[in-house]
Structures are given as structure tokens and as C-alpha cells.
């Protein structure tokens, strides 16, 4: 019989982006959903471990999870107010030992991804990362848990099973619905973590100003800019500053996340007109990221295969390109507008502004 532990942590102020009022990160709530579903399928016991800066935050987090009907454990205190390897590893180890868990699910947040492999090693267990799905195997005899992940830039999908316990599984964000239960009073068991001598002092956090943050994993829409935005246009001139204004205005009014083609972000190093707010972190594709959003809108981009690879998990794809023979029109997008993106985006921004007013 498996014992499932879901590890969660509260959001730091700079992690929440817009203030949603949620005490736990969205990725933690997604891991909760995965754990609850798995426990139900296996008729296994479910425990939730919370890492929080103080007991008040731990109780608030616990009450938002009370309806899951699980055992609630918390490690809290000043050392856990900031991510740091030594204290976070001690917290997760204490939670896993107290829960006596055989299957441990955790969100692949920067905080947990950094320590989970070390904790798995301390417990004599095993870890798999970038898990996108969990199901029960159909092989006759034993009930085996199957975990799914992608390899080779999301081209090959593998199904993993393991006999080693505890088995840590780090879940990619955006693969499960966030748990949303009724808030209720909850019994939380405080767990004491054995913290070693701390050599790292967290002196503060530095993060980009709110308006400069263009990568928004929770956004419904991914907006992607291609190299066409900085190419010479019909009048023989490039219009990079105007392109930048149109794109930033759209992000502001739509709340979309910003992606880019490799060609566009590479241009900075090649002395061509650039959009200063783009970096390689925005790059989508074979050598970039593969974000998950409900919708995607590509503009001034050709739809080349290495770029389109990054669109694998975008549910509905649309593109605006001047070229009627671009890659998007050859079966890679659901809808293609053969049009000038400068005109389309200016009109779209005006409509969105009017709708907001
Ligand atoms: C091994 C390898 C790995 C790669 N990995 C990646 C990767 O991870 N990500 C990635 O992006 N690329 C990657 N590439 C490069 C990729 O193949 C493409 O070259 C690149 O994505 C093209 O970028 P683009 O479409 O923005 O630019 P372009 O190919 O220059 O296309 C610009 C488009 O903009 C259109 N356009 C111009 N003006 C307008 C306008 N006013 N309105 C509307 N449309 C307009 C043009 O018609 C054209 O279709 C990789 C390549 C290789 C070989």
C-alpha cells in the first residue's frame, strides 16, 4: 500500500505576480490535485506537507486544503521564510520522514527543484523530474504507478515505473488544474526540522519591476514576436521602436506572456534593430522553452519547425504573417491571418483598450 505525500510551499511576495491572495503557490495547488487524484485511484492515504514562514501562514495554507481530507503536516519558522538549500532540504526531509511516505509529489518550483534530489538521496530513494502526468498501470497483478515525461525537446514521451521507494516526482507546472477546495478549519501537525549550522544568509530579493516582467506562466495567452517586427517594412524602413510600443501595449492590456523566436532575440548580438525587453529567456522552440498556455498568437514569425516545436502544448494557435506561404499556413496553426501585424496589433490594442474603458 502506497503512502502519498504532497509537498507544498507558500508564495514569496515576488513569486505571486498579481496579488491573488493565495497563500500557496499555484504549482503547489496543482501538485495537490495530482496527489488527490492518485490517492483516490490507489485508495492510498494522502498527507500534505506545508513549508511556511510562520505558523499563521501554515494554518492559512492548511485551511485552504482542509477539504482534501488529508493529514496535514507543516514545517514553519523564520529559517523557512526564504529559500535556502540547508533549511529547505531539512524541512522536506522532516516532512517525508514524518509522513513515512513512499510516493512524494512536489511542484518543480525553483525552491523545491533545488533540494528534492538531495532529499531523495538522504532517504535512500529515487527522483524523477519534469513529470507531466501520473496514472495507474494496467499490467495484470501489481498496481504500478506510471509517470509520464518528455525527452528530446518534447518530441519523445516516456512512461516511467520504479520499484524504489520513496519515489520523488517533481511535477511540471501547467499540467494539472489547481486545487480549489472550500476553506475550513484544519488540524495541522507541526513538524520539527533538524537544521544544520547555516552558512548561507539570505540578505534580500531582487526582482524586475512589475511592468518589466514579460514571462507569465499563468497567462491564458502566449504572444510570440518574430524577427519580422524589426525587418524593413513596405516603406523600406525598419520600425523597431513602434514595434516595441505595440507589443508592450498589447501585453499590458491583455496580460499575455511574451515569447520570441530565436532569430529575434539573436539580433541583439548581431547589431540589428532590437526590442530591448526581449532576452533568450523569452525564446520558444527547440533550443528554447515549451510553455503551456490555452492560446497562442504568433506575429511576424515564419513558423519554422525548430521554433514551432516550442508550441507543442499551446492548445489553440493563431498567427499573423505577411507571407501566405509561411510555415504556419502549412498546417502548423489553427488560424492564420495573412496581414500586416503592425496594423493588426494597433487595431487589436485599440479594441482591447476600448473594451477595458
Ligand atoms: C538547430 C536549430 C535550432 C533552432 N532552435 C530554434 C528555437 O528554439 N527557437 C526559434 O525560434 N528558432 C530556432 N531555430 C531557428 C528557426 O529555424 C528559425 O530560423 C527562426 O525561428 C525564424 O525566426 P522568425 O520566424 O522570427 O524570422 P524569419 O524567418 O525572418 O521570419 C520573419 C517573418 O515575419 C514576416 N513579417 C515581416 N514583416 C511583417 C509584418 N509587418 N506583418 C506580419 N508579418 C511580417 C515575414 O513574412 C516572415 O515570415 C533553430 C534553428 C536550428 C537550425
Question: How are the elements arranged and paired?
Answer:
Elements: E1 3-9, H1 26-42, E2 45-52, H2 55-65, E3 71-76, H3 85-99, E4 103-107, H4 110-122, E5 126-136, E6 145-151, E7 156-160, E8 167-171, E9 189-190, E10 221-225, H5 240-254, E11 257-260, H6 262-266, E12 293-299, H7 305-308, E13 314-321, H8 328-332, E14 335-338, H9 341-356
Parallel strand pairs: 1-2, 1-4, 2-3, 3-9, 4-8, 5-8, 10-11, 10-12, 12-13, 13-14
Antiparallel strand pairs: 5-6, 6-7
Helix pairs in contact: 3-4, 5-9
The chain binds flavin-adenine dinucleotide (FAD).
Flavin-adenine dinucleotide is lined by residues 226-228, 231, 233, 261-264, 283-288, 300-302, 304, 306-307, 320-323, 326, 340-342.
Please describe what this structure looks like.
With about 350 residues, the chain is an alpha/beta fold. Strands 7-6-5-8-4-1-2-3-9 form a 9-stranded mixed sheet, sandwiched between helices. Strands 11-10-12-13-14 form a 5-stranded parallel sheet. About 40% of the residues are buried. The longest helix is centred in the N-terminal third of the chain and has 17 residues, at about 25-40. The termini are far apart. α3 (about 85-100) packs across α4 (about 110-120) and α5 (about 240-255) runs parallel beside α9. It is about 30% helix and about 25% strand. β6 (about 145-150) and β7 form a beta hairpin. It has 2 domains: about 5-190, Rossmann fold (3-Layer(aba) Sandwich), CATH 3.40.50; about 210-355, TPP-binding domain (Rossmann fold, 3-Layer(aba) Sandwich), CATH 3.40.50.
